[in-house]
Design brief:
423 residues
Length: 423
């Protein structure tokens, strides 16, 4: 049953000691507020980093040629390594565990792409149909490249979302012709690839591009996926590829400058471990702050018991039971922690929602400018899980009750005759 007298007494006590009540409540509210902000910030950073992985297959491996940095078998350093179609065929046919593989022939330097009176400088990427699952591209309109495009060396292209916006201004691009360095290509599709800069590309058949742009048998890089391989198995495949290419081009297998390899599955696994450590650190800091607030509540309750020793003695002399004394002190501790914890939770969630809103507006405004394609997002949806916030608040209330237990037990054990002599 609700005891109105008890709560009136609690409110009177808190009002009598306003500064002490405020400082105690602030320490508790600050603890839950800091925990929510730390969790939300960590989540926002993780979301932004993970978005980079979502734009490509998580099991992708990228290989590109470079320059040797070591002398090897009588050959000098600083030799330029060039990949050819033969490198692609050997890796495709001799390395087990590869799911999809595609060579890439890139035309760099801001290739001029035009449609009627519209034009822009975009990257031209020449690949096989297997490149789509490697890159993680999503077709928005039309279709992607297919095997017939490759076999017949068709002059067709799939354009990125940013290219579509820049050249067609909302007009249906499918079946229309654009010019790449004054050579006409038929648009068969529009794709989206997550990150803005990756949408500023024109994708065309690898075979047609080698023929049209005098690529010969040159290959700029290789992309592949490793199927259901674990990070350890993917690393083994990576090592086999490096060994094979090193043997073909007569370079030291340890020369990372000669043959560059990026294994996204390994990076993804390492990133997950890093964020696991970050989350553990955040919880450590947040819980430490909560404990500091709870200890503060306990200390304040001890002071309250000490100040009200004579009063408690009088109560017991008039027939108050130990349970009623116990309930009075614990109720005060629970009230402080509940109110302060709730305030801290609300403010913390509000701050995270505000940051999320500002970030969304910033991204939306940037996407309306030509610089949006290269924008790097550091935070994405920095929201703390509301379930965690509520759970932490409930845990705080329980701990507040436990914090008030020690001073409450001390108050319940006070003997009336001794308390009346207390100064």
């Amino acid at each position: 049953m609700f005891d109105l007298d008890k709560w009136q007494e609690i409110f009177a006590t808190l009002q009598k000691n306003k500064l002490r009540t405020f400082l105690t409540s602030f320490s508790v509210a600050w603890g839950i507020l800091l925990l929510i902000i730390l969790l939300g910030s960590g989540k926002g950073l993780q979301n932004a980093v993970m978005q980079n992985f979502e734009s490509n297959a998580k099991n992708a491996v990228w290989i590109w040629p470079g320059r040797t940095s070591m002398e090897y078998k009588g050959l000098s350093r600083d030799r330029e390594i060039r990949f050819t179609n033969k490198d692609f065929e050997i890796i495709r046919d001799q390395i087990a565990g590869i799911d999809n593989i595609s060579p890439q022939f890139n035309i760099w330097g801001g290739t001029r792409v035009t449609y009627n009176n519209e034009f822009g400088n975009f990257t031209v990427q020449c690949v096989l149909p297997e490149h789509q699952p490697i890159e993680g591209s999503k077709v928005l309109q039309g279709r992607y490249l297919n095997k017939i495009d490759i076999q017949q060396r068709r002059k067709v292209v799939v354009i990125g979302e940013e290219v579509f916006k820049a050249l067609f201004k909302g007009e249906d691009p499918i079946g229309k012709f654009i010019k790449v360095n004054n050579i006409s290509f038929k648009v068969i599709g529009v794709y989206s690839d997550g990150n803005g800069w990756q949408n500023r590309r024109v994708v065309m058949p690898f075979t047609a591009a080698q023929q049209i742009f005098n690529g010969g048998v040159n290959v700029s890089s290789l992309g592949l996926t490793t199927g259901d391989a674990t990070p350890e198995e993917s690393k083994i495949i990576e090592d086999k590829i490096r060994q094979k290419l090193a043997s073909i081009h007569t370079v030291n297998p340890e020369d990372k400058s000669a043959i560059g390899i990026r294994n996204t599955l390994t990076e993804f696994s390492q990133t997950q471990k890093v964020f696991l450590g970050i989350r553990m650190f955040i919880w450590f800091i947040g819980i430490g702050t909560l404990i500091a607030g709870i200890v503060g509540v306990s200390n304040i309750m001890l002071i309250v018991v000490k100040e009200r020793t004579r009063e408690i003695g009088v109560r017991k002399a008039l027939g108050a039971t130990p349970a009623s004394i116990l309930g009075l002190i614990i109720s005060e501790a629970v009230f402080i922690t509940t109110l302060a914890g709730y305030v801290g939770m609300v403010i913390g969630v509000a701050i995270m929602e505000g940051v999320d809103f500002v970030m969304d507006q910033s991204i939306a405004n940037a996407q309306q400018t030509t610089d949006a394609a290269g924008q790097i997002v550091l935070f994405l949806n920095p929201n703390a899980d509301i379930g965690i916030a509520v759970g932490a608040t409930i845990l705080l209330v329980v701990c507040g009750a436990l914090a008030g237990m020690i001073p409450a037990l001390k108050a319940a054990r006070i003997k009336p005759i001794e308390s009346l002599r207390y100064e």
